[in-house]
């Protein structure tokens, strides 16, 4: 996550999804922003929806009005402003900057998991999503990715996981299927849920003891967001 993304269309759907995941049956959630410094790229420019309330505000009026006020009226692009509100009341937020170096990254995860102790759900919000072969752990730009060893370690600590993944320019169905297969293999779960939007997909990997807590979420997401957030359950065949 970069602060320059704050309030774009991905953020709107992200916060709306988190409110439903946490709101059907309130659970304690630790949000790991995986913050990286802003850069000169135009990422985060998709804010025209905030000037179209007739089309977009009804999905989550509370989040929409908040983002419209911060981004359009006050021109604030910083996740810290969200942390000081009651938009995500069951969440607590970890806002340290992620570094590329292996030792710094390992210490980062350890500190975060100490921070997340007692939370049923962890939300990881990397810039890009899951690791890619071209960027090994500890290399330049590795801070943009979450690594499978980190997924395994966090899940083994007893947390259910929600992971942000940017959708690359490739066929989406096989891409999502490959990732859900890998999530199941790494964690040993029987099913993974995906929440797909136009530009991103979120993967929910539930602990068995939490599945009943999350089960009402899928129906609620479909009711509220319709085609804007497509829900799918992925089970081993």
What does this structure look like?
This protein is of the alpha/beta class and 237 residues long. The chain has one domain: Rossmann fold (3-Layer(aba) Sandwich). The protein is built from eight helices and nine strands. The strands form two sheets. It has a seven-stranded mixed sheet with strand order 2-1-3-6-8-7-9, sandwiched between helices. Strand 7 and strand 8 form a beta hairpin. Helix 1 crosses helix 8. It starts with 8 loop residues before the first helix and ends with a strand. The mean pLDDT is 93.
What distance lies between the first and last C-alpha atoms, to the nearest angstrom? Answer: 34 Å
Proportion of β residues? Answer: 15-25%
Q: What structural class should be given to the helix and strand makeup?
A: alpha/beta
Principal-axes geometry comes out as: globular
* Average pLDDT number: 93
CATH fold-level assignment:
Rossmann fold
β-strand number: 9
User: What is the count of DSSP helices, taking H or I runs of 4+ residues?
Assistant: 8
How many domains comprise the coordinates?
1
Kindly state the percentage of residues in helix: 25-40%
Features:
237 residues; alpha/beta; Rossmann fold; seven-stranded mixed beta sheet; two-stranded parallel ribbon; 9 strands; 17% strand; globular
Please sum up the structure shown.
This protein is of the alpha/beta class. The chain is 38% helix and 17% strand. Helix 1 crosses helix 8.
